[in-house]
Amino acid sequence: MSTQTGESSNAICGIDDDFAVSTIKQKSLSSGELVQQVLEMVKNRDRAELIILGLIKEYSFSYHRLKDLLRENNLEVSFSKVHYSDIAPMVGLEPPMMGRDIPYFPMSRARLTNDLFRKIIEDIDVFTSQYGVLSDHRNEEARSRFLSAYFNRIVDLFSGLVYNTPESLLEGRMTTKGRIEYQFSIYGGITILFIEVKLEIGGATERLNCYAQVIAECDACAWMNTQNGFDIPIMAILCDGKSFRFFKFIRQSRTHNTKPQLFLGQFVGGFEEEPIYEMARGTSPADFIRRSRRLCESLFYVFLDGYNTGLEGYWNRSVEKGKSEGKGRDSTPGWVKAKNLAKEALEEGQVAWNLHNEGKIDESKVSAENALKLLAQSVEEAPWVGKGMRCSKFYTDTIADGY
Fold it and tell me: Where would you tag: which of 29, 121, 255, 319 has the fewest CB atoms within 10 A of its CB?
């Protein structure tokens, strides 16, 4: 992998801190023309996925219509079938380098409070009781449900602003390598993908093909973002059941005449992955808790970063809409407060992690609490009607005992 250094992940990835509203001007593909492209896929079934990637590079079209046509023609299409040698050049990578030329972005962690992390451990206990430890899982469905325990509580912090939209461009079965298991959006802009791959990945070639799926899925989701007016980076989490790897994908406006770019997260110390530990027989509970916390705090950083990205993109779109209407939008001031507080929450969470890493435990606890307070304030400021729709807020024993 090629190493880069700098002041921020955005600077390293070659993007502006303020994400612009998409200015991509793609040619429109009519329904009839889309039918012809699908018929071409029928003739070349082994290259159907690459044909689709070529279409989203050049055209705007209805992906719902594309899905209907794929089903009507009995095309089993999935980006898990894409090979690294075919797709690497699309993001400026050389296949013979076998991924060693993928540039890095600085991956970080954000400290969780003890109370929040305790709830995550309790969730892991519950899921372990239901599905067993990871090494006992015999299929991807059990593993997927189990792994959600590591981030369900984190997603809940955003009170619905970060929500799972599992519909992807292609809906393939896990026949070869994997699929998008979770797809998190903020106001319609996809910012985080969780891609799960099959148990027991083989050698280097198979792992590179998993990277190929990351590229393809991210490119398709970035294309869907542009259809909704967003031009924002996407964070991707790749899980093989043993560890997590983190990627950042940037598909900037085609008016810049640049190829999309893929970056691999690298932690301080040169580590490229976050291992998943299990509470198996003979494992020290203390070791399991400490090591699991590192993983959860990596995920917390990803969600905070994705939340910031989504707010920035939606705020910019709100400003542009206001300009096009010849007036300011009522919601814009709320977005300014929300995105500024979100940025502070991300920074404070990282500060808390660094303080703990330096052995400053008490100071770290204060910063971690402040990060959650700032995040809660950001969520409160964001103008969205769906916030606070929680039945638990209205729960009383009197109500429950009445049924």
Answer: 255
